[in-house]
DNA sequence: CATGGGATTGACT
DNA sequence: GTCAATCCCATGC
């Protein structure tokens, strides 16, 4: 995939070991791939990112495509902020603002592998099975208690934090496919999944289905 | 000010 | 596979 060495060097870490603004200031496709394996933490719960999607103002599926509005201004702001919005009137979806300030782009966090605080996740989701807790963009925000109030918050400073991937993730080749649930620019292969992950949302990319038969 | 669409999920057929 | 639930906000009258 991308050059992991260059990405790691470019992705400066803040003192608390969260990923810093220079990590997010890069091309949104690079960030979407490099976020696989990173850890989203909020309160006592945390999970490993196993699925992302990239959005950029140049294509119509991105909220920033319409330009600068009260709703989208966060997307054009400094990289490394959280963009949280309500989807279908029901779910809060978590994004990481990317590219330099002035460019509207973000990575949607679509699925996590539960890592810590699993019982709290179960309580908030009202479900038991591990694979059902964070296997979707609306599920993971419910599991981690992420709501609209965190829109514009700093993903390095918290309260929601994204931490670097554990060693070894830079060698993992993401499975790319078309983005899910959109009608515009649906042909772009800007969805990225970690191969072998059990908590990827549906529909699973064909490449993952093959890996999981037997 | 009214309207309509959307980056979803879960229940049901 | 189909469909309803339900809310923010952009757009247009």
Secondary-structure map:
Layout (H helix, E strand, L loop, with lengths): L3 H7 L10 H4 L3 H7 L4 E4 L2 E12 L25 E6 L3 E7 L7 E12 L1 H8 L4 H4 L3 H7 L16 E4 L11 E3 L13 E3 L12 H7 L2
The structure holds a DNA duplex (13 and 13 nucleotides).
Q: Using the alpha-carbon principal axes, give the shape.
A: globular
N-to-C terminal Cα separation, in Å? 27 Å
Count of runs of 4 or more consecutive helical residues: 7
Average pLDDT reading = 88
Poorly predicted tracts of residues: 1-11
Evaluate the radius of gyration: 16 Å
Structure summary, number of beta strands? 8
Order of helices and strands: HHHEEEEEHHHEEEH
Oligomer: single chain
> How much helical structure, as a percent, in the residues?
10-25%
Largest sheet: 8 strands, antiparallel
Strand content: 15-25%
Helix-strand makeup class = alpha+beta
Account of the protein in words:
The chain is an alpha+beta fold. 21% of the residues lie in helices and 24% in strands. The protein has seven helices and eight strands, in the order αααβββββαααβββα. It has helices spanning 4-10, 21-24, 28-34, 118-125, 130-133, 137-143, 206-212; strands spanning 39-42, 45-56, 82-87, 91-97, 105-116, 160-163, 175-177, 191-193. Strands 1, 2, 3, 4, 5, 6, 7 and 8 form an eight-stranded antiparallel sheet that branches. A hairpin with a 3-residue loop joins strand 3 and strand 4. It binds a DNA duplex (13 and 13 nucleotides) through strand 3, strand 4 and helix 6.
């Amino acid at each position: 995939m991308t050059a992991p060495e260059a990405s790691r060097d470019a992705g400066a870490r803040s003192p608390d070991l969260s990923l810093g603004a220079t990590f997010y200031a890069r091309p949104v496709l690079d960030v979407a791939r490099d976020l696989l394996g990173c850890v989203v933490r909020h309160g006592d719960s945390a999970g490993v990112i196993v699925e992302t999607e990239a959005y950029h103002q140049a294509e119509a599926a991105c909220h920033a495509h319409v330009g600068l509005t009260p709703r989208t201004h966060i997307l054009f702001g400094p990289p490394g902020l959280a963009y949280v919005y309500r989807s279908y009137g029901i779910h809060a979806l978590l994004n990481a603002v990317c590219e330099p300030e002035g460019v509207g782009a973000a990575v949607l966090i679509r699925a996590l592998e539960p890592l810590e605080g699993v019982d709290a996740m179960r309580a908030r989701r009202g479900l038991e099975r591990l694979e059902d807790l964070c296997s979707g963009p609306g599920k993971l925000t419910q599991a981690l208690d992420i709501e609209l109030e965190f829109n514009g918050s700093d993903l390095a400073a918290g309260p929601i934090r994204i931490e670097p991937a554990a060693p070894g993730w830079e060698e993992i080749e993401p499975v790319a496919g078309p983005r899910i649930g959109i009608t515009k620019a649906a042909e772009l292969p800007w969805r990225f999944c970690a191969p072998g992950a059990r908590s990827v949302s549906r529909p699973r990319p064909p490449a993952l289905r093959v890996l999981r038969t037997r």
